Amino acid sequence: MASETKSSESPPQVSACFSPVLVSSVAYLGSIVFYLLAFYLREFPKVPFPAVGCLLASDGDFGEWTSAGYVLMALWCFHYMRRFVEVLFVHEYKRRMGYVECFGAQIYYWVFGFWVGLSLRPDMGYINTYLPLFIVGSLLFFVGEVGNGVSHLQLRSLRSNKNNHLLCQTKSQHVVPRGLMFELVSCPHYLFEIISWIGFSLATWALSVVVFLAASVLTLCIYSYQKHKAYRTEFDGAEGRELYPPNRKALIPFVF
Q1: What residue ranges do the domains of the chain occupy?
Q2: TM spans, by residue (predicted)?
């Protein structure tokens, strides 16, 4: 939403004083840094299973692939480098962030980055045990990455092309997103991010990644519901406003 105009007599709002570009950039780069620290830090105390290691027992056909941790590290770093680039060149932020939101983001991404990096270390006992799941999970991860990036570019296009005849613009300058997965759900970028982490979970079978997936699903379900509700409230079909597509769901096509 657009920022509210403050009167000269209003007290300064110190609770929302951080640039979202700075906060998100530090969070995403920090996730990479903490992952790498956890992965390469030597003389680290031994952490017991299942906090580290692969949860899936070997079927005897695949054997032991200790190099999988390095491939998974590349996938993690790719995701957050892409997110960092999007923060700088794709996303548009309309509000500043408060202390809780700012420091909460750093803790969330840094702690999970460290735990995931630690849990996928070969010298900590991580051995990927099932090649078919690794391949399927990695492919699903890239499907999610492409879908997430394309959805973000679509949102960027909506903001930069407000006069497109396919869009309905309101006084708030908001438009109804259209095209591709936006025809089915209000937040396809959230859906594809979940797909990325489902793929990463299938490829890793690590407890840290499963917990991270659960936290991501919960968070993005809440965000998508709030965004979907806001769309339906604003585009209610009254006073000449467009009616938000009634069959469009918040996050999962035809379901939620």
Answers
A1: 17-234
A2: 21-42, 62-78, 99-118, 130-150, 180-199, 205-225
Contact residues for 26 (Cβ-Cβ < 8 A; gap 6+): 106
Q: Are 27 and 105 in contact (CB under 8 A)?
A: yes
Token pair 């339906």: residue: 232
Q: Report, as ranges of residue numbers, the positions in the chain whose pLDDT lies below 70.
A: 1-16, 59-64, 160-173
C-alpha–C-alpha distance, residues 6 and 13, integer Å: 10
What are φ and ψ of residue 249, in 5° steps? -95, 175
Q: Single out the residue of 178, 188, 172 nearest to residue 157, CA to CA.
A: 178
Q: Enumerate the β-bridge partners of residue 243.
A: 236
Q: What is the pLDDT of residue 80?
A: 98
Rounded CA-CA distance 50/190 in Å is: 29
Say how far apart CA 184 and CA 203 lie, in whole Å: 28
- Which tokens go with 94? 């309309």
What is the number of residues in the chain? 256
Residue with tokens 């840290």: 208
pLDDT of 173 reads 64
Phi-psi region of 63 (alpha: psi -120 to 50; beta: other; left: phi over 0): left
Q: What is the pLDDT of residue 64?
A: 64
Token couple for 195? 């797909």
Coil, strand or helix at 18: strand
